[in-house]
Structures are given as C-alpha cells and as structure tokens.
Amino acid sequence: MIGKRIKAIFIALLLTGLAVIAYMYTVAIRMPVVRTANVAALPPGAAPLSILLIADTQVAGPDMPPERLARIVEQANALAPDIILIAGDFVSDRRVSSRLYSARDAVAPLFELRATHGVYAVAGNHDHWRGIGDFRMAFADSPVTYMANESTNAGPIRIVGIDDPHTRHDDVAASFAGISAADQRPLIVLTHSPDVVPHLPAAANLVFAGHTHGGQIRLPVFGAIAHASAYGNRFLDGHIVEGGRNIFVTAGIGTSILPLRLGAVPDMWLVELTPRTDTP
After folding, report:
1. Rounded Cα gap, residues 140 and 134, in angstroms
2. What is the rounded distance in angstroms from the CA atom of residue 90 to the CA atom of residue 104?
3. What pLDDT, on a 0 to 100 scale, did the predictor assign at position 279?
4. Distance between CA atoms of 162 and 148, rounded to whole angstroms?
5. What's the Rg (C-alpha) of the chain?
6. Is the peptide bond before 62 cis (omega within 30 degrees of 0)?
7. Mind telling me which residue stretches traverse the membrane in this protein (predicted)?
8. Taking a C-beta distance cutoff of 8 angstroms, is the pair 105, 71 a contact?
C-alpha cells in the first residue's frame, strides 16, 4: 500500500513538473509585449520621435527559428517607429537546442525592419563567442547600421553604439570620441549590457540595453534566479531613472541556456521622445 502511494506521489510530481515546463515554454514563445514610455528629451518645439528597442533575438531552435523572428519583425514594423535599436545577441549557441543557425540566417529577418531614421545594432556576448566576423559580414550589405564603439547621426539625434562589455569589447572613450562638446543634439547610447551605465559621461542621459532577459526565470517570492549583471537587480529590466538618466532595459525576445521563461515575458520597448518644456 505504501509503495503504491509513493508511486502515485512520484507520478503526480512528475506530471506537475512537466506541466510547469510546458507552461514556461509557451511563455517563451509568446509574441513580445510592447512596453511604452514617454521621455521629455528633445529641444523645445521639436517633433516627437519614437524609438523601438529590440534585444536578445538569440535565434536557435526550438523557440526562436528565423520564421518566428520574421513574425516579430512584422509586429515591429506595424508600430511605425522613427528609429529601431537592436541591442545584440543575434544568435544563441546553447547546448539545449534543436537547431543552430548561421550568422547570416540568424540576422536576415532583421533586414526587413523599417524605420524613418534607420535601424542600428550592436553585438552581444553570444555574437562574439560565435565569431563576430561573420556578423560583421552579414550586416555589411544590409540596411542595418552595425556599430562597434562609435557614434553616428540618426535624424535629429546622435546614437552611440558601444560594443559588448560582457566580453570586454566595450570602449566608452572611443565611442564618444567623435562627439563635439558643442553638439547639443539628444544623445542616445545603445549597448548590449546595461553594465556600462556607471562608466558613461553625464551627457549620456538616454540608454537602451538588453542582455539580462529580465531574469528570464523569476520565481514567486525569490525573484530572478540569475541577473546576468554585475549590479544584481539594479538594471534587471524596465524603465530605470538614475540621477536624471533614463535607462531602458528590455527582457528581450529570445532565451538563453534553456528555452523557458517564467515571470519575465518577451518584450520590446517603444519610447516616445517629446520636447522639453524648458526655454532654449
């Protein structure tokens, strides 16, 4: 009798565990939630500007084949943003995967992104681990502007693209080297990891990042089981305001290590920059 009860309990626990895993997988493959925010960061009288942040596409089977990414690209284009920022980790190289894809196949769907003032991307740690040269080649003949420790003009703003700090390819000084102190345009920093934030100059008051996955698996009461940041929960995800600096960290749309999510759904950020009310 006792043996039958133990067996029944074991089967119940096993089925419960499988049900939880199945649920976490369905969360991982949901279409991204679009989170929104408004920041008064433009000069008085300027036209509003919308910025869409996408990160951690991490193309790999079973949860993120290129076909799913293509559907997300359609979702992004339907938002009609003025600028699209892609904060790295284009590919996944996890061991628990039904299929890995080449750099070209992983980023090709991103070439269909459309924005008034362009699409800009920086690399993440997985891209460097896979071989960053392949990604540079893939982006070279694409409409996406690939950036590595440099800045560029994007309509009425200036974008600084910082390479991945997790693999120590970031160079903040080089990234800001081409920016004149007399340039009064809004300055946006695009980086894979938010861990560069404490090292940025004061002028960098708008930061867009990914990498953390929002913890990817966040347990009730205990919270995230991993932070992927040297600063713990400080930059875990969301809209963070520190000393007048607006930091946006997306939970991303792909997964790392396991194709599972809990308490951290896939998301993108659509941020509208509006004019300040101060006088010039």
Report:
1. 10
2. 10
3. 53
4. 6
5. 20
6. yes
7. none
8. no
Cα 129 from Cα 132, distance rounded (Å) = 7
3-state secondary structure of 16: helix
pLDDT tens for residues 7-57?
766 677 777 778 888 998 999 999 999 999 999 999 998 999 999 999 999
Tokens 């003025």 belong to 82
Q: Length of the chain in residues, anyone?
A: 280
Answer whether 0.90 is exceeded by the pTM: yes
Residue 23 contacts by C-beta under 8 Å, 6 or more apart in sequence?
262
Would you state the structure tokens that stand for residue 4, as one six-digit string? 């039958």
**Residues 23, 253: contact at Cβ < 8 Å?**
no
Question: What domains can you pick out in the chain, each with its CATH number?
Answer: 31-275 (3.60.21.10)
Secondary structure of residue 8 in the 3-state scheme: helix
Nearest to 264 by CA among 207, 209, 225: 225
Q: What are the angstrom distances between the C-alpha of 138 and each of 92, 111, 133, 142?
A: 16, 10, 9, 7
- 3-state per-residue secondary structure call for 188-237: EEEECCHHHHHHCCCCCCEEEECCCHHHCEEECCCEECCCCCCCHHHHCC
Residues 6+ apart with CB under 8 A from 263: 215, 217, 218, 219, 220, 224
Q: Where are the beta strands (DSSP E) in 25-147?
A: 33-42, 49-54, 83-87, 119-122, 144-146
Please give the Cα distance from 231 to 265 (Å, whole number). Answer: 21
Q: By the 8 A CB rule, do 258 and 272 touch?
A: no
